[in-house]
Amino acid sequence: MDIDVKKVAMLSRIRLTEEEAAELGPQLSSIIGYVEQLSKIDTDGVAPTAHPHDAAMPLRANVVTNTNRRDELQACAPKTESGLYVVPKVIE
Amino acid sequence: MPFSSLSDIQDRLNSGQTTAVEVAQLYLDRIAAFNDTLNAFVHIDPTHVLAQAEASDAYRAKHEARPLEGLPIAVKDIFCTQDGPTQCCSNILKDFHAPYDAQVITRLKEAGAVLVGKTNMDEFAMGSSNETSAFGACRNPWDTERIPGGSSGGSAAAVAAALTPAALGTDTGGSIRQPAAVTGITGLKPTYGRVSRRGIIAFASSLDQAGPMTRTVRDTAMITAAISGHDSRDATSVADAPEVDWLAACDAQDMKGLKIGRPKEYFVDGMDAEVRASVETALKKCEELGAEIIDISLPHTEAAVAAYYVIAPSEASANLSRYDSVRFGHRCENPEDLLDMYTRSRDEGFGSEVKRRILTGAFALSSGYYDAYYLKAQQVRTLIQQDFIQAFEEVDVIATPTSPIPAFKLGEKTDDPLTMYLSDIFTIAVNLAGLPGLSQPCGFASNLPVGLQWIGPAWREDIVLSAAAAYEGATDWSNKAPATFGGES
Amino acid sequence: MSWEVVIGLEVHCQLNTDTKAFCGCSTQFGAEPNTQTCPVCLGMPGQLPVLNTVAVDKTILTGLAINAHINLESKFDRKNYFYPDLPKGYQISQFAVPIVEGGYIDIPTKDGGEKRLGVTRIHMEEDAGKSMHEGLDAVSHIDLNRSGVPLMEIVSEPDMRSADEAIAYLKQLHQLIRFLGVSGADMEKGQFRCDANISVRRPGEPFGTRTEMKNMNSFRFIKQAIEFEVLRQIEIIEDGGEVVQESRLWDSVKSESRSMRSKEEAHDYRYFPEPDLPPLRVSQQEVDAIRAGMPELPGQLRKRFETEYGLSSYDADVLTQTLEVAAWYESLVAAHPADPKRCANWMANELLGRLNEAGKDLSESPVSAARLAELLDRIGDNSVSGKAAKDVLDAMMESDDSADAIIEAKGLKQVSDSGAIDAIIKEVMDANPAQVEGYRGGKDKLMGFFVGQVMKASRGTANPGMVNQRLKELLKG
After folding, report:
1. What are the pLDDT digits (tens) for B444-454?
2. Which UniProt keywords apply (chain B) (predicted)?
3. Tally of domains in chain C
4. How many CA atoms lie within 13 A of A83 on its CB side?
5. Nearest residue on chain C to A48, judged by CA atoms?
6. Last residue of a domain, one of C288, C322, C345
């Protein structure tokens, strides 16, 4: 199978050089080629499993438990200004 | 002393023969002496380690000792800790300091453990050899030209070379069991939902589970007892999980009447002959101890690898989207625009294996392919679970080799990702089914350790532990240690 | 040949829970940027979501109110896309199995009937943060206080055939949500946001290519935007072109829409089940309990006001616009039970009118229901005429004085004493002998003239009923 590596890389927001794309393309094709053996397995009427156990979701009480920790939480941010995260201009 | 088990050290601390500070100093000295060779630790802060040990000694002087009082435990760089950096061995998290502790770290602290440092790992736990670490490969103490397994390679190497008596790892497709096997130590992946995942950097959320890597079965039980339990802030942590009496399970060392399943799909052509022979010998030993070996079939074993390499990368592709350089993590220099910031930061921050998995996952989920890959893999996951459910109607526990091959050489498989992936063939199904799995040493192949894997029904770690403890008690494999690092081989 | 317009609406409604959908951060509006964030809603490594139980209850309540089916098991999925205000790089949403499916909303039609508009589904999801660009040159600023606030997305069937129907649906839904108390639904605060899927076709033909109109933050703009888009599409097709499926942004300043920069991957959201959240299960008993606690809905309330209080459908409609108005009316009736219609009349026409002129909300009314009831009591016992009472109300709006005090001070107390009224009538008759003659000669219409003169002479304080009665008597001669 031929995979459009550049499209998938754009979806994933990863820059790929031409060389990287040339290397990754066949690798991805080989991985996907391998997993294609799944198509040989009869799964008609088999329910998909997303979670290992058949458990229900626990819920949380609607109670405020967090206080303002902005300074601490922004200590690891690449760029902030007056408590706001700064990024290159977002164009809509 | 360095190769003592955690419970031996505990006895000596309890009887006053030694102190937590002395124990910590012993291992710090060994780390100072050997870490350059092994690269097992990526972060160590001796002052902080000794401060914890002192605090533990002070606590012991005043109160009754807690379950892990004064015991050194290293943790994989995937666990968020408020002390020191948490980098997941990735450049994208270079110098990241988590403003919180993982729940298991909190539990270890509450149990009185002394946290030794952060161990090396494959970047974001993606790998089976520890070679994808941004901080360089880690080496196998049994042969430093060889890999220590992965992704918890640093934890495995550190325990195997007695740079720490115990460590925590995480296991998504075998990342505790396979490195434990190839470094000759014991490692347990608990039932999914047994241990909180909160604060553990996610690789594949429906598969990840943390667990101990130790010298003995009893040590894995001691640590699991401390770290397991419901966490209301992890919705996948199971609230009404059946309890296990962890230490009692290890004491019940009787194998009489135990029905051990031997799945034919785990004893196949292509696997290392000596590995196979070691495991067959181990099963004979179990028979001698009174167990009944029953041939079973887990027909979807090979499909498990294929299903895993759809499900794990898909979940990972989303889990790793948060590394976008907005709130934390590496940002490229002078981004031209927003897209440039994203694509260049992530290109620079992620290593090639991580990129490969992100792209594989993004592809498997992309429009037009979802049903053929992701949905199909989830259906096969159901079949894999059913295989085990059926098997456990017949047997109490399943025994298999942990890895089809012993530790391979550094660089041997890095060019061929797919072959590397296939080295997880015996561990992956356990994660897909959410079951407990333990690896313990059971011999050598070409002078390299071989692992015996025990697989139990969901929530029945007790069966796994008592089988493993019985085998351990009847053999000498757990006492072996690499001579280069002062052990008895 | 005519064109048929086809509109489907997606409403994003913020639930008014105290805390966010998946963490214990406050949702209070207007806090300093990023002060209501935590490792979970910042998407920090290893952090996990745990769903807010009240968000579930409020979504179920909304589903029940539109007569929808509640899925006792629903699931969460990840919707993947990169945006700086989306911390995890995916939004937790419900894609494959939403909690609510298949309801409807009835809107009134011009001919006095009703049209039923289908609601496909309501699903739960989390809001994103805010990106700010204004006044900034090369950068944007990100505030994540809103990140993780619980949202309901209410998706309609493509059942609307005009901008007016779309607005009627939205107003009905908006009112319903306010009644249910599940959201502030303040459009200016972004608590009730609407995207419109719009297409045109020749009647009877399959649906045309649709565009999605975004960023319309008032009913007026929604109407303008839909009308603009319909004309744009018709023009394209009539010029022989083809409508491109895309998202368009409404510019309310220029009153036009523009294409949103099409992203290179053209929305491949790669939905898949959220592995951090097992299925959401609710029991039928829980659903029944929520149903039992459901407040009276606007339609029911309107009907009750008509039957219980004998209100016209117009008054009933006005007095059920919001839960607050309805409650105010009912407390007025409780204080002045003698005449619910009088209550309706005075509240709907006089009080709300005055508040509206003053630009005030009912909650800011200087006249409480109790004070207004006091005035209505005086009308009821003929102490003040209806006309004079309006002056009294004007004064009450300006001061804290009681109705009685104002009536007294202004000398507006109604004269109902027949002797006094007779005296005034006699004065008027004496002053207008020709008209008296005329009336007695058969010019009945002159009665109005006399009433006017008497009222004027009494400065409006004479009881008009008695004036009428006594005039008839005395004019007979």
Report:
1. 999 999 999 99
2. ATP-binding, Ligase, Nucleotide-binding, Protein biosynthesis, Transferase
3. 3
4. 14
5. C273
6. C288
Q: Which residues of A are less than 8 Å from B434 in CB distance?
A: 52-53
A79 CB-contact burial (10 Å; exposed 0-12 / middle 13-18 / buried 19+) = middle
Name the helix (H) or strand (E) containing C181. none
Biggest CA pair distance of chain A? 58
C242 and C103, same structural domain? Answer: yes
- Chain C interface disruption, residue of A59, A79, A81, A86, most C CBs within 10 A: A59
Look at the domain A1-41 and name its fold: Histone, subunit A (1.10.20)
Which pLDDT does position C28 carry in this prediction?
Answer: 95
Statement to judge: residues C223 and C317 lie in one domain: no
Query: Hey, is the C-beta of A30 within 8 angstroms of any chain B C-beta?
Result: yes
Instruction: Name the residue among B329, B346, B363 with its Cβ closest to that of A28.
Output: B363
Q: Give the neighbours of chain A: at least 3 Cβ pairs within 8 Å.
A: B, C
Residue C264 has pLDDT above 50, yes or no: no
Which residues, numbered 33 to 72 in chain A, qualify as contacts with chain B under a Cβ-Cβ cut-off of 8 Å?
34-39, 41, 43, 46-53, 55, 57-58, 60, 69, 72
Mean pLDDT (chain C, rounded) = 92
Supply the DSSP string of C329-397, one letter for each residue. Answer: HHHHHHHSTT-HHHHHHIIIIIIHHHHHHHT--GGG-SS-HHHHHHHHHHHHTTSS-HHHHHHHHHHHH
Cβ atoms of A39 and B376 within 8 Å: the answer is yes
Residues of A in contact with C275 (CB under 8 A): 50-51
Q: Which of B56, B90, B133, B151 is catalytic?
A: B151
Structure confidence at residue A92 (pLDDT): 65
Is residue C260 domain-shared with residue C310, that is, in the same domain?
no
Q: What is the pLDDT of residue B174?
A: 97
Superfamily of domain B6-258: Amidase signature (AS) domain (3.90.1300.10)
Domain of C399 in residue numbering reads as: 296-410
Interchain CB contact of C92 with A (< 8 Å): no
Task: Give tens-digit pLDDT for A45-75.
Answer: 999 999 999 999 999 999 999 999 999 999 9
**B383 to chain A: which residues are within 8 Å by CB?**
41, 43, 46
Instruction: For chain B, give the percent of residues with pLDDT over 70.
Output: 100
Reported confidence tier of residue C260, pLDDT bands at 50, 70, 90: confident
Q: What is the mean pLDDT of residues C56-63?
A: 98
- B partners (3+ CB pairs within 8 A) are A, C
Catalytic residue flag (residue B94):
no
Same domain flag for C241 and C379 = no
- Spell out which residues of chain C touch residue B338, defining contact as CB-CB under 8 Å: 84, 140
| Number of other CB atoms surrounding residue C180 within 10 Å | 19
Structure tokens at C291: 């149903």
Segment B374-413, tens digit of pLDDT = 999 999 999 999 999 999 999 999 999 999 999 999 999 8
State the nearest Cα–Cα gap between C309 and chain A, in angstroms.
Answer: 39
Q: What is the pLDDT, as a whole number, of residue C265?
A: 45
Q: Are strands C130-132 and B437-445 parallel, antiparallel or unpaired?
A: unpaired
- Report, as an integer, the average pLDDT of C329-350: 94
How far from the centroid of its chain's Cα atoms is residue B417's Cα?
A: 20
CB C416 within 8 A of CB C463: yes
Determine whether B76 is an active site residue: yes
Least CB–CB distance from C35: residue in A11, A68, A81: A68
Render pLDDT for C66-91 as a digit per residue (tens, 0 to 9).
Answer: 999 999 999 999 999 999 999 999 99
In B51-68, which positions are buried (b, 16+ CB within 10 angstroms) versus exposed (e)?
ebbbebbebbeeeebbbb
Domain locations in chain B? Answer: 6-258
Chain A residues 39-78 with a CB less than 8 Å from chain C: 50-51, 53, 55-66, 68-70, 73-74
Q: How confident is the model at residue C273 (pLDDT cuts 50, 70, 90)?
A: very high
Query: Does the active-site annotation cover B423?
Result: no
At B299 the pLDDT is 96
Are C177 and C223 in the same domain?
Answer: yes
For the residues B290-308, what does the mean pLDDT come to? 96
Helix (H) or strand (E) holding B449: strand B448-455
Residues, chain B = 489
Tell whether C160 and C144 lie within a shared domain.
yes
